[in-house]
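Translate sequence into structure tokens.
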Amino acid sequence: MTAPIHCRASISEHIYSKCSFLGEVFKEGEDRNVMNSLLFSFRKLWAFTGPGFLMSIAYLDPGNIESDLQSGARAGFKLLWVLLGATIIGLLLQRLAARLGVVTGMHLAEVCNRHYPTVPRIILWLMVELAIIGSDMQEVIGCAIALNLLSVGRIPLWAGVLITIIDTFVFLFLDKYGLRKLEAFFGFLITIMALSFGYEYVRVAPDQAEVLKGMFVPYCSGCGPTQLEQAVGIVGAVIMPHNIYLHSALVKSRDINRANKKEVKEANKYYFIESSIALFISFLINVFVVAVFAEAFYGKTNMEVSLQCNETGSAHSELFPANNETLEVDIYKGGVVLGCFFGPAALYIWAIGILAAGQSSTMTGTYSGQFVMEGFLNLRWSRFARVLLTRSIAIFPTLLVAVFQDVQHLTGMNDFLNVLQSMQLPFALIPILTFTSLTSLMNDFANGLVWKIGGGLLILVVCAINMYFVVVYVTALNSTVLRERERVCVCVRLNVWRCLIALGVSRLDFRGSVQYPPSVLMDEQPEFDS
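Result follows.
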């Protein structure tokens, strides 16, 4: 009678020991999963790599390159710290854009479409479209200038503009084969820019101590109004309104389970790391351009450049009048002076870098245009129809400029387009801070108190700097007509009012119209085309 009892006891002990072992295994597995979510993974970073680099191209467009070279020629190395600060501010703003897309599954234009009344929404859309058109015109003109330099003037500006239409078909062709192929192509273009402008940097060999001093010492000795305006222009060129809309849409390309808080948090982490790497690379490329012109052409006069170009037999020596005024350069003249001082190779490699910058930024501009249009207007057109429309909107005014304007006198137009984009900046920054601060929209990922206060002050400073740039430009034109401000005043007030409520000033919410139900996130959400 005792043997069976002994057997049962042994079996029970055996089962207990097995269950204990399995429990420890499961517990170790859970601990391992927790550790994996906390640790860094290069494989996961690679999976999320792409949107940040596409976004960073806006920091390398021809408008930024022109701002860089003018900064070096006018202020030497003294404004590199402004470029660094503007890039960091841009990274923080891009973080908000990426979080909005990851958490809600909607990009900024779609959120604006759902939450703003009809009239302010249409005005907001028009303002953003103006910014996109202005940016696209700079990019297309940059491509045309590069083609003109590469062909030694044989391809006129208007013909270069027509040639850039080809990038639309390249865009459609690559997009047909998947987003990763398109991202790889953009990575290739960024590499070309890095090699081209890096060659110029090595060829000119700027003083490394001066580069580091200009980058990390926030001081500008001996600077006057010209350098101040250039510093403001750097901030305006780096922080672009349509890029906020673009980045919030690009992050939707990855499949994320938004019901899983851990997955959303992980996506936010890796997107921020990727954006940091991408903007660091773009910052280095911008530094290359600033340092080249700071070392070689800061303090140079037109007479010195003209004599050098005559000695080397350059066909462009007539660009620089025989006087002792300080040298003024743009993308076109910048390439010419590089050729005069450092040989034809420097000119052609410069033109290749500008062409890569223009081609890549026109394609991302096309992306921005179609996302903004489909988001604000809720359009469901074919990809070809959307791309054709958004490209046409920018190509036609650019073609008119190219026909009636000479390639040697485009600096004024670039300044005007920078002012145009500066005026549209509040129409991107105020909505992104507003919506990322709403708990009803972002749930646990809404901006905390530090981000609300810090982000609000940051956006206020950026907008104030850009408005100063606008005032300086308008004053220089001796113009007192500021009807643009009156047209958009109502929309700005509405945006500011909603932003203040989202930041916690609840007494302004008389009708309770700014709190959105969480169910809005469960509505039908458009798919990301890939």
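Note: Residues 1-9, 479-493, 513-530 have pLDDT under 50 and may be disordered.
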